[in-house]
Amino acid sequence: MILEMKVPSPGESITEVEIAEWLVQDGDYVEKDQAIAEVDSDKATLELPAEASGIITLADADGNRYEEGDAVNVGAVVCLIDTSAEKPEGETSTKQEKKEEAPKKEEPKPVATESKTYATGTPSPAAKKILDEKGIDTDSVKGTGKDGRITKEDAVNAVPSMGTPTGGNRGTSRSKMSMLRRKVAERLVEAKNTTAMLTTFNEVDMSPIFDLRNQYKEEFKTKHGVSLGFMSFFTLAVVRALKMYPAVNSMIDGKDMISYDFCDISIAVSGPKGLMVPVIRNAENLTFRGVEAEVKRLALRARDGQITVDEMTGGTFTISNGGVFGSMLSTPIINPPQSGILGMHNIVERPVAVDGKVEIRPIMYVALSYDHRIIDGKESVGFLVAVKEALENPTELLMDNNPKKALEM
């Protein structure tokens, strides 16, 4: 029996995917549920499992083949499996296993090179002086004198080459962007072109959070199995500020503004296929432990390529942490259709004025990009100030003056 393998729908609104990589070869024997290919949608990379065991043919019933990089409609037949075929003895060949066998490197064959000089003579003393002053190599000047001798006129007319000749490799390469990367690019351009985006900045003294983490992080990790990081503080500070300024937790739909009474916080994480933005659902109901556990779970799934479309769908506000890469300051781009995104940056010890005295404090610059069509300057600045206040006074504003209880010690 020949089974037609069709591309399943990875989620609503997705009509096509792209073959990222075939994990098996034509004629291989595959087991049921074995991953036979990786496919890219515009939101995630997913594995395509075999629906039955048998010999696989990487073509449809008409012999049409899909190569890596080809776009395929959802529901289209991408390969055939002969379920009546028996497994050959010792059959273990798959593309993934063959990757483990390092191919033998061929010794590069010497390539004959031909030295080329433009000057066949030597420069006159006057010409040499002029060329030295210009920093021009005599080999790069073609002489017009007798026997190719470089004359003074040749040296005067010689023009230095643009840039520094280093003799290094100047090759280029071209590769096709994945569907996920192309979709991210489209959404970034869409955000720039369709929103009235503006960014406001502030700075946060991270000393209070440093003190709390130093005091409780070991006990927190021992009890909960996750580290007490910065994301829980920022997420809960954002949740508090969104309740104070609900316009920031809204988005435009045509001529309407939709506001949410829940806080689904998108967190930008770097995965093997590029930027991914999984969502922490109902963050307003989570504790410090709950946020840290969810951040760790989503980050690991994104890193391992296991994140699903549903886990990245939705979100009412985004937090992006460029500080992990060393960013001092940036203007984050809104994640449409959301109306706001908070950018975190690196923490640097800086001199600040405290009660009339200069002190060295760990300072982080924060940035809020927002859609000015529905969020006014007063609300945007107020929101960012509210975040700053909560981060600089977390014991009172985020922990109800009881850190041990807030951290569930």
What labels would you give this structure?
alpha+beta, OB fold (Dihydrolipoamide Acetyltransferase, E2P)
Report on this structure.
There is one protein chain. The chain has 409 residues and is an alpha+beta fold. The chain has 2 domains: 2-95, RNA polymerase II/Efflux pump adaptor protein, barrel-sandwich hybrid domain (OB fold (Dihydrolipoamide Acetyltransferase, E2P), Beta Barrel), CATH 2.40.50.100; 182-406, Chloramphenicol Acetyltransferase (2-Layer Sandwich), CATH 3.30.559.10. Helix content is 28%, strand content 24%. The protein contains 11 helices and 18 strands. Strands 9, 12, 13, 14, 15, 16, 17 and 18 form an 8-stranded mixed sheet that branches. A hairpin with a 2-residue loop joins strand 12 (265-271) and strand 13. Helix 6 (231-244) crosses helix 9 (377-392). It starts with a strand and ends with a helix.
Topology:
Elements: E1 2-6, E2 16-22, E3 29-30, E4 35-40, E5 45-49, E6 54-57, E7 71-73, E8 77-82, H1 95-100, H2 125-134, H3 152-157, H4 179-194, E9 197-205, H5 207-224, H6 231-244, E10 250-253, E11 256-259, E12 265-271, E13 274-276, E14 279-280, H7 288-303, H8 309-312, E15 317-321, E16 340-344, E17 347-354, E18 357-371, H9 377-392, H10 394-397, H11 403-406
Parallel strand pairs: 12-15, 15-16
Antiparallel strand pairs: 1-8, 2-4, 2-7, 3-6, 4-5, 6-8, 9-18, 10-11, 12-13, 12-14, 16-18, 17-18
Helix pairs in contact: 6-7, 6-9
